[in-house]
UniProtKB/TrEMBL annotation:
The lineage of its organism: Bacteria, Pseudomonadati, Bacteroidota, Cytophagia, Cytophagales. It holds the Pfam family CHU_C. Signal peptide: none annotated. It comes from the Bacteria. Gene3D superfamilies: Immunoglobulins. This is Gliding motility-associated-like protein. InterPro entries: Ig-like_fold (IPR013783), PKD_dom_sf (IPR035986), T9SS_type_B (IPR026341).
């Protein structure tokens, strides 16, 4: 390799090499004909930020050399990566290659590697015990594990303490201060070989014996499943919540704080539940509060009175009194620990809401129960609905109507609860509820497929429920024989009997064409007064003694001759004009008709959706004589589907 750039070119362009395609890594393989350079580095290893200074150790002038401080391979001349600076600062940890390139004779190359260590300050916690002792706790984490040991400056003039990482346990140190003051402790990580590392600070004030005391629970309040305890403790004192289990043992919970304030437990489902708060310093000294137990409360509504019942908060020796509040105002004050209920009948109004709470005073501790609210009610059941009727409307839904047993002028707020029986002899199940409304429409049924029976229950404003009403059932109209229409005879009226049935003959729009009274009969034989009419549409109207009316579903009756469908047993497609086609004969009263013919292997040989019939050919060629199967699917004018299958003999 020959480089012809002179010193002036190096100075003017700051580039000492012409671009030549060379090996990928100049540190591993010098370019051909390049001489070996030489330089020294001020230090091979250090903590970030790490400053290095390089020095040319060849006999050539310094201004003939450039340096790449993070060489990662490739051609530095092409990348113009070299700089003349002899000092560089590394801010990130890692291993780096420094490449020296020189414009001397045929050029020179030299490399050295340095390591930059992570100087992230270690995390630590400093906390005070009694007797002026302070503990430093350094957690084992990714930052901690990279250091060899740690330096602690206690900030009181004592020598800096070195703490080593021994074993896998916690890294701790204890120091006793001589004077009461606030000290800023510094903990630094240390790499032993180079004596460097990052440091962090924390202020701490050592505690006198009198400053680490027995914690006190001053108040316990429950709200739903949450218990909140107000605690008094030293300003630097950490306290942890303990809860008594079913065996009577106190178990620590992961709920703690430092100094005065609140502790909150969010999963308390039983009362009384008893608590303590415990403080244990880093030196193993433990202090416990007195036991404090919660109050469980329930409220029961009776006949215009409410009973308030609660559980005593354990059995504290220094109990003083209970205070019962109603809507945040004092209702009663009781002095006996075992008196745990009161009956409130003062101004109780039905359907009004009342909120109760119990506060117990035990020494200087205040224990407050949850606040429970209840709506005042009455235990006397109201009378049932007596006037109830059902009817099928023109939309094929069920209309249910009733008259409230208590006039709305006296009790405007009520509920009508609807129960339905879907199968004869089956159970009644609640399906809906109407509020302050005596009309219900049931769209979740098919009254053109079956009859449905209903009962309704009256609920008053106090929440009292009546007995179920008498059963009412929809009239279901269908046909049980080819010559009759029939309907169910269960009454659609709860408070009166059926006087008569009337058959209504209607057109497609629901207009009544004729009414036929059939007294109390539950069947009728339609008359085909028009020989061209193949069907007739009917519904049944039930009339009570008082003139109330209930309708059945609509039903389309097909006269017997309209339902006949004929297919010959054999046909002779020989062109003589007699029985040449396989065709469907009989009624034409269909929306659609489909005829499909199969050979003996089940293959379709003919299909049509009209009455043109099969002429006995397959793809224009005469079919072989023999037996063929057929399937006929028809849909009548009401959308009802019928399928007929059979076989026919093709004769030639």
């Amino acid at each position: 390799m020959c480089i012809s750039l002179g010193l002036n070119t190096l100075v003017q362009t700051n580039v000492a090499w012409a671009h030549v395609v060379l090996a990928d890594d100049w540190c591993a393989n010098r370019p051909p004909n390049a001489a070996a350079g030489s330089f020294s580095v001020s230090a091979q290893k250090g903590c970030a930020p790490f400053t290095v200074t390089v020095k040319n150790t060849t006999n050539s002038p310094d201004n003939l050399f450039l340096y790449v401080y993070d060489y990662q391979g490739g051609d530095p001349v092409a990348a113009k990566a070299g700089v003349a600076d002899i000092t560089h600062v590394y801010t990130k940890p890692g291993k780096y290659k420094i490449l020296q390139i020189g414009n001397v004779s045929t050029g020179s190359v030299a490399c050295q590697e340095i390591e930059v260590l992570d100087a992230t300050p270690p995390n630590f916690r400093a906390y005070s015990c009694a007797n002026m002792k302070v503990v430093v706790d350094i957690p084992r984490d990714a930052v901690t594990e990279q250091y060899d040991d740690f330096k602690i400056d206690w900030n009181d003039g004592s020598p800096v303490e070195t703490v080593s990482k021994t074993g896998a346990g916690a890294i701790t140190a204890i120091h006793t201060y001589q004077n009461k003051a606030t000290y800023q402790i510094k903990v630094s990580g240390n790499y032993q070989s180079i004596n460097c590392g990052g440091g962090s600070f924390q202020q701490v004030t050592p505690l006198l014996d009198t400053e680490f005391t027995k914690p006190v629970i001053t108040k316990l309040t429950t709200t739903g499943t949450t218990a909140t305890l107000q605690v008094q403790a030293g300003a630097q004192q950490s306290v942890t919540l303990y809860q008594k289990d079913a065996s009577g043992a106190y178990i620590a919970r992961p709920i703690s704080r430092v100094g005065n304030g609140s502790l909150v437990a969010t999963d308390i489902t039983a009362h009384p539940t008893c608590f303590k708060v415990v403080s244990q310093n880093a030196c193993g000294e433990k202090f416990e509060s007195d036991e404090v137990c919660s109050i469980g409360l329930r409220v029961e509504a009776r006949e215009k009175e409410n009973e308030v019942i609660w559980n005593a908060p354990g059995n504290p020796a220094n109990f003083q009194q209970y205070t019962v509040t109603k809507n945040d105002a004092t209702l009663r004050t009781l002095n006996g620990l075992t008196t745990t209920s009161v009956v409130d009948s003062d101004g109780i109004t039905c359907n009004e809401s009342y909120c109760y709470q119990i506060t117990a005073l035990v020494g200087s501790v205040e224990i407050v129960s949850d606040q429970l609210c209840i709506t005042a009610g009455s235990s006397t059941p109201p009378p049932p609905f007596s006037t109830v009727q059902v009817s099928v409307n023109s939309d094929n839904r069920v209309d249910l109507r009733s008259i409230p047993p208590i006039p709305t002028s006296q009790s405007p707020s009520y509920r009508m609860v609807i129960f339905r029986q879907d199968q004869p002899g089956g159970a009644f199940a609640q399906t809906s509820m109407e509020v302050d409304r005596n009309i219900h429409q049931d769209g979740g049924v098919q009254p053109d497929q079956q009859s449905y029976c209903y009962q309704v229950v009256y609920q008053n404003a106090c929440g009292g429920s009546s007995e179920p009403s008498k059963t009412v059932c929809t009239i279901y109209l269908n046909s049980r024989s080819a010559s009759t229409i029939n309907w169910t005879g269960e009454s659609p009226f709860a408070d009166e009997v059926i006087d008569r049935y009337i058959i209504e003959k209607v057109d497609g729009n629901g207009t009544v064409l004729e009414e036929i009274t059939v007294d109390l009969n539950t069947s009728y034989e339609p008359v085909q007064d028009d020989p061209n009419a193949l069907e007739a549409r009917f519904r049944v109207k039930a009339v009570s003694k008082s003139g109330a009316i209930s309708y059945s579903n609509f039903y389309t009756y097909l006269f017997p001759q309209a339902q006949r469908l004929f297919v010959p047993d054999a046909f002779t497609p020989n062109g003589d004009g007699l029985n040449d086609l396989l065709e469907v004969k009989g009624s034409t009263n269909f929306q659609s008709l489909q005829l499909t013919v199969y050979n003996r292997w089940g293959e379709v040989v003919f299909s049509t959706e009209n009455r043109e019939g099969w002429d006995g050919t397959i793809n224009g060629q005469p079919a072989q004589p023999g037996t063929y199967a057929y399937r006929i699917n028809v849909v009548n004018l009401e959308g009802k589907k019928t399928e007929k299958t059979g076989s026919v003999l093709l004769i030639r």
